Amino acid sequence: MTTLVHQSEVSSPAPVPAKSLITKLNIVTGFIVGAIFCWGTYYALRAGRDMTDTHNVNKVLIISMFMWSLGFMIGIGALIGPFRWLIGKDLTPEEELYMSGEGQGMKRYFKFCTDHKVVGIQYLVAVMVLLGAGGTMAMMIRTNLARPGSHLVLPQIYNSLVGLHGITMIIAMIIALTGPLGNFILPMMIGARGEAFPRLNAVSFWLLFTAIPVLCSAWFLGGIPTGWSAYAPLSTQAGPGMNAFLVTIIIFAISTAVAGTNITTTVITMRAKGMRFNRVPIFVIGCTISVALAVPAFPTFMAAMVQTGMDRTISTGFFDANVGGTGWLYANLFWIMGHPEVYVILLPGVAALLEMLPVFTRKPLFSFPMAVAGMAGIAGMSALVWAHHMYMSGWMPALNGPFMVTTEFISFPTGLLFLVFVGTLWRSRPWLKFPMLCVYAMMWNLLIGGITGVYVSDVPLDGTLHGSMFVTAHFHYTIMGAALSGAVGAIAYWFPKLSGRMLNERASYISFWFVQIGLNVLFMGMFLVGAEGQARRVANYSEQFAGGNLVSTIGAYSVGVGMLVFLWAIIHSAGKGAIAPANPWGAKTLEWTVPYPAPVENFSEEQVVTSDPYGFGKRVSK
Q: pLDDT tens, 484-507?
């Protein structure tokens, strides 16, 4: 793969547009306008309504929350471009350049910025905040379960804690890689100067941002006692906190649709000259398949939330059996999203580790087509397995067998990915840096998560294990053990490109062993108590499960310590780490040819690609 041009490392400040409103708008004005819209709507809608009527309360809260989001987007300047286009006066070149943040230093991270590198860092900070919040709630849950009869968390709020932990971590993991690296790194990897829709790219982040305060407001509105799946009809009968949940999901679904459309279009239309699809880096393929899977899957959850909102506000009865509705409708809509969502989370992490594996083994990737086929097969099969979550619900028992078969068939494309990992590692002498350790951790954790997934996909066994801690452990081995290990390894690998500095190596190793040992202790304990019959989502349990839960809690604290060490490593290294060389790992992909700090347009000349990026160890004919 050819490398081309030298770039200037320092960009001069962009000319400030004279008397342009864009220069006055930032996160502060966003909060001010959002608060005005929210509270103004709230008090206007309250006037003359009977606020003892639950339906009226729900209407007022839902509309006010949406108005907060709209007001914030107006206040930060996200809608100036569309408004100016509608009146026939588009943004000037000076305003476009100002919106890119060129030469504006730190303040560009607190405004509506169209530079994909800035958006990537914004996403990274959001992911860290969400993981920190979700992880704190996880530690509260595990501390409460350290011994039977604990009252650290009162039983009446325990399910809300579990639900908020679940949805916070799910949102964080969905965007963990496609948000930061799909924005910062992916366009550089394909030789693009930017992204296809830079304004929509910024819209996707700030929409996500507006959803976070909405979700947090659930704590002050009675929580979400249904768990993160929010099954109807429980969700239609829940308190006002459920309004915050459904508004969050709708806003987040719109955000992911916008982001997915942008990434997919960028990859399809903006690849460098000569970069055919068999030369596209595998990380790009994994991210594209992930977002392409999310675009059709997430709207079903959004539709379920819209229907829940209608049931809560105008008594439509979508999920009320008394008026012809059914809770099975909700379950199908939720799980049509809920199982593909696992692979939306997992695939970017797996692809990131496949990307770095040739670099640390100095070998070509073993069967690039097999890796692509494995990820595509997983994405395709994941859309055909959702009803295995509903074996015990009584919905269509005749379909249990077919869904069991499709679920077990998904092991085949997963096996192809394992063959690629093992084939690349075969007879290699890996360079055991921290990202490479994450490859081994992901393989181990995904293997356990996959094998235990076969158990719960079997109808007779699921009858015993359904609703137990065994299922919780299986799920977390896949999402936390495999996907999070991939995300951590990817952040460490591309950290020099994100920050211009090397990640603290000693802290990274300490973090790795605390997290991986703790993770296996945590979930092995949960497997044991789950197999013995302990139910999940309960605040108390029988004395017979005390030993396993204490072991799991000890493991959870080890994971918590490890993640705090990794957080410290990121923050400390970003400010005081060793200056990174241009290409610290000796990789062959295009992003390492872009200097730090990267210019607004990544490349000043068109890039020309003549080979795939995995030509390590190949003989060059003279």
A: 999 999 999 999 999 999 999 999
Cα separations in angstroms, 153 against 135, 139, 471, 540, 549: 16, 11, 23, 10, 16
Q: Return d(Cα 517, Cα 277) in angstroms, integer.
A: 39
Domain that holds residue 214: 113-593
63 part of a folded domain: no
- Examine residue 364 and state whether it is found in any structural domain, yes or no: yes
Whether the predicted pLDDT of 1 surpasses 90? no
Separation of alpha carbons 401 and 101, rounded Å: 55
- Written as one string, the DSSP assignment of 455-516 is HHHSHHHHHHHTTBHHHHHHHHIIIIIIIIHHHHHHHHHHHHHHHSB---HHHHHHHHHHHH
> Measured between alpha carbons, how far is 448 from 446 in angstroms, rounded to an integer?
5
DSSP 602: S
pLDDT tens, position by position, 211-241: 999 999 999 998 898 888 999 999 999 999 9
Euclidean distance between CA atoms 439 and 363, whole angstroms: 15
Q: Cα(336)–Cα(553) distance, rounded to whole angstroms?
A: 33
Quick one: pLDDT band at residue 9, thresholds 50, 70, 90?
very low
Q: Tell me if 332 sits within 8 A of 386, measured CB to CB.
A: yes
Q: Is residue 599 part of a domain?
A: no
CATH number of 250's domain = 1.20.210.10
**pLDDT at site 621:** 43
Per-residue tokens: 360? 């640390």
62 is a domain residue: no
pLDDT(14) > 80:
no
Q: How many domains does the chain have?
A: 1
Residue 502, token pair as written in the block: 């090397």
